[in-house]
Amino acid sequence: METISIRAPSTSSSGTKARRSARTRLPAAVALLPTALVVLVVYIGCMLWTVRLSFTSSTLLPKLDWFGLTQYTRLFANDRFVTSAENIVIFGALFISGCLIIGFLMAVFIDQNVRGEGLFRTVFLYPYSMSFVVTGVAWQWFLNPGLGLQKLVRDMGFESFTFDWLVNQRMAIYTIVIAGLWHGSGLTMAIMLAGLRGVDKDLWKAAKVDGIPTWRVYTSVVLPLLRPMVVTATVLLATGVVKLYDLVVAMTLGGPGIATEVPAKFVMDHLFERNNIGLGTAAATIMLITVVIVLAPWVYTRYVRPQGRHT
């Protein structure tokens, strides 16, 4: 009776493969080294330096003294910062929810195999290709009571028509929301459309056979399948909300008064105009913490939880 012997792989051959693999990875590691140094020094280093300055009494020039939490106490007692925080919450809630709803509806419309699909995709996505500065200037002209929509309607004979939100302290923040929705909905549409094109056609056939209404299929079947796209779009929109600056500057300069003040503008003004580095970096640190809070769930669901499942 023949015996089958199984020969274990030699240690020398596996060591040779490991050395060969290391030599192969070495050029890539060397090529990535400058980028890694830039990330460590410029990005992470500057973030840590900003956090450090927020605990100092720096004004025009940086200082390395220890001021404790005094800057943060002053920050949250500052009416301008409190107003900017309230504005960013209003803008963020309306902007993110509005972009998700409008973008999803536009994606559903395009997904119906309409004629001129390429044209509609271009038109819907075109605003996102422009900078926030261009968007802000365009909407400032359009919403200006003396130049835009109000004047146009009144020239048509409706002299009692009034749309002065841009100069109304209570409504000015909503003009920023309108411009933001026009700018960001196209991005959400593109993400959602990619998800809709991946939905199995057999689901629609089964729904038609069962007589399930179309709206019910979208809400109960399609939307749960699009959860990764919804999360991705939400994270992208949320990071844009936190760093909102140029759209406000282009449209209102934070006015009327401080009605449209946002944290990023508060930081820039105190760093470069009011010569208060300590207070400005404290506000910047709060923004950094907000970004980390926004990104943490996405990083966990995208990278940490899948690895946990495999183990």
TrEMBL record:
<feature type="transmembrane region" description="Helical">
    <location>
        <begin position="277"/>
        <end position="300"/>
    </location>
</feature>
<dbReference type="InterPro" id="IPR000515">
    <property type="entry name" value="MetI-like"/>
</dbReference>
<dbReference type="Pfam" id="PF00528">
    <property type="entry name" value="BPD_transp_1"/>
</dbReference>
<keyword id="KW-0472">Membrane</keyword>
<keyword id="KW-1133">Transmembrane helix</keyword>
<feature type="transmembrane region" description="Helical">
    <location>
        <begin position="122"/>
        <end position="142"/>
    </location>
</feature>
<keyword id="KW-0813">Transport</keyword>
<feature type="transmembrane region" description="Helical">
    <location>
        <begin position="171"/>
        <end position="196"/>
    </location>
</feature>
<feature type="region of interest" description="Disordered">
    <location>
        <begin position="1"/>
        <end position="20"/>
    </location>
</feature>
<feature type="transmembrane region" description="Helical">
    <location>
        <begin position="26"/>
        <end position="51"/>
    </location>
</feature>
<protein>
    <submittedName>
        <fullName>Sugar ABC transporter permease</fullName>
    </submittedName>
</protein>
<keyword id="KW-1003">Cell membrane</keyword>
<dbReference type="InterPro" id="IPR035906">
    <property type="entry name" value="MetI-like_sf"/>
</dbReference>
<comment type="similarity">
    <text>Belongs to the binding-protein-dependent transport system permease family.</text>
</comment>
<keyword id="KW-0812">Transmembrane</keyword>
<dbReference type="InterPro" id="IPR051393">
    <property type="entry name" value="ABC_transporter_permease"/>
</dbReference>
<feature type="transmembrane region" description="Helical">
    <location>
        <begin position="88"/>
        <end position="110"/>
    </location>
</feature>
<feature type="domain" description="ABC transmembrane type-1">
    <location>
        <begin position="85"/>
        <end position="300"/>
    </location>
</feature>
<feature type="transmembrane region" description="Helical">
    <location>
        <begin position="217"/>
        <end position="242"/>
    </location>
</feature>
